[in-house]
Design goal:
The structure is a homodimer of 319-residue chains. In chain A, the strands form two sheets. Chain A has a six-stranded parallel sheet with strand order 2-1-3-4-5-11, with helices on both faces. A six-stranded mixed sheet of chain A has the order 7-6-8-9-10-12, sandwiched between helices. Chain A has eleven helices and twelve strands. In chain A, α5 (87-99) packs parallel to α6 and α9 (208-219) crosses α10 (233-245). The first copy, chain A, is α/β, with parallel strands linked by helices. The interface between A and B is large, with 51 and 51 residues. β2 (77-82) of chain A pairs antiparallel with β2 (77-82) of chain B, so a sheet runs across the interface. Chain A binds a DNA duplex (16 and 16 nucleotides) through residues 1-6, 8-9, 13-15, 18, 33-43.
Chain lengths: 319, 319
Amino acid sequence: MATVSRVVNNNPNVKPATRKKVYEAIERLGYRPNAVARGLASKKTTTVGVVIPDISNAIFAEVARGIEDIANMYHYNIILCNADKKKDKEIRVINTLLEKQVDGLLFMGGAVTEEHLQAFKTANVPIVLCATSDESGQIPSVDINHEDAAFDAVKKILEQGHTRIAMISGTLQDPSLGYARFQGYKRALESAGISYDESLVRIGNYRYESGADAMNYFIALDKRPTAVFSATDEMAIGAIHSIQDSGLKVPDDISVISVDNSRMASMVRPQLTAVAQPMYDIGAVSMRLLTKLMKKENVEQSKVVLPHEMVMRQSVGGI
Amino acid sequence: MATVSRVVNNNPNVKPATRKKVYEAIERLGYRPNAVARGLASKKTTTVGVVIPDISNAIFAEVARGIEDIANMYHYNIILCNADKKKDKEIRVINTLLEKQVDGLLFMGGAVTEEHLQAFKTANVPIVLCATSDESGQIPSVDINHEDAAFDAVKKILEQGHTRIAMISGTLQDPSLGYARFQGYKRALESAGISYDESLVRIGNYRYESGADAMNYFIALDKRPTAVFSATDEMAIGAIHSIQDSGLKVPDDISVISVDNSRMASMVRPQLTAVAQPMYDIGAVSMRLLTKLMKKENVEQSKVVLPHEMVMRQSVGGI
DNA sequence: CTGTTAGCGCGTTCAC
DNA sequence: GTGAACGCGCTAACAG
């Protein structure tokens, strides 16, 4: 019994001959170790929980792939739960994940509220926030600086001489994609001495159609903007098509820039200029950080901010 | 002890007053049931394994969302494993999933080989194939008829008077997306009395760039095709842009049609005409089927073929 | 190096 | 309606 356990777990204290005999018996009997029993006895499940807003969203799917690849590399499996950035759904899945005795938790969601912190506290496994901001700064996290990314994007259009710059934002309730990117937009305007004009901001829902709707609104304006900053690629592409469908040209009549740089950015004409957010890496790095935490290795940096970069393509032009 | 178990599992044989007391104690002690111990004792984990080719692929991500939603509805969690349609990786994850005592398995992969069947046989939990073909026909499955879908797509262009129709295919080693759709193409040509021309078929890798490359090849042909059938949306969009970048027009000069109808199909100009494959439903229905199998309900139909439909947009025109 | 003995935290009989 | 006892399949000491 115990020797079999040693063989299966690669414990060196087994004579090669014995090991061989055990393997043969395993083969002959078709024995398959029961990971649940092992988990109960060892108090480790080699499974991590991942709560994600929506796996069918290209951005998050890319992060998920990064997570899974690294998890795989360290022999962890992942339990995936969609929570749609809904607080109560998030809390609920965190608890079921914890009941399932995951060895760690990767949280990707909307705002991290007091309730979240409370739920995290009762967990006695490490947790890292992934592509999610954390006001309190107490929980380890991996993300980019969304405000800076937005700032850089808007700065780029400012440098091209634009002064009438609209924004297609996500909901301001969303701390990273919504609020932070909106703040970056405002700060960039401010830094250029341009006063903020409420009529040049529309709130979208990150989807293509909402980007197009917002753009239609801007086009109908008396003094329409000469450039648009979109909080995400998908809304930006909606905006580009809305511009083209109304007979105008990108970037000749209106420039478009966004933050994300998903694969879709080069799958549109003109190709979209965007500030790149390293989705795969965010997933990979956060999972790597989690493995360290689970092994109780000491980490130097528990709040990592990954760099973003500008990817110039064809959707931005001078005034 | 036993009474707590009854309360937690909603066993009716508990006096309301006792039940209340137990709940209070649970609250006070911050007790959290251990699903691993429960799994060991009850031999049920309320967890299903999902092996998927690549979660960062929009098509599969959509299927995954369908799976997760239904799983959630029936209180199952899912363990997600990417296997990239590689046989050995697939076999390996199937085995770890089985070791983890999943209550069922959803398999989405490349070809289902004898080895797969062998691995499935040793599992004593239900398995359903999802968006994957199965030559043997022994394993329950949910998919569309890929050959018919391709046939219908090509038929549509034939009806528009085209006779010189190229195809951008996936690898013929892939039974559903590759081989089946290619067969549908050939059959449609045949039914119209058009002889198959090898020079009008290029093999892509499902990515945008490979679609563009294939199209560039076709455009350079002496007698270039007037219509192109792409095995997937993404390659079709690559083709459209390749056509436009070379100064030609879609559909005036070349028509484009594909199978998939992912959200990207309407995120391109002209919008892509495609045969729609109900990704979300394939996921949802296969998960629903799996729940029935896990509850040992008898299912009338263990091989379900979901309908596909033509979605007309602007990328196909007459000759 | 190998076998023996306790649990791991729960569900499930059984008595009561 | 409730509690005691056993066992799920394995790992972790502990002897030997």
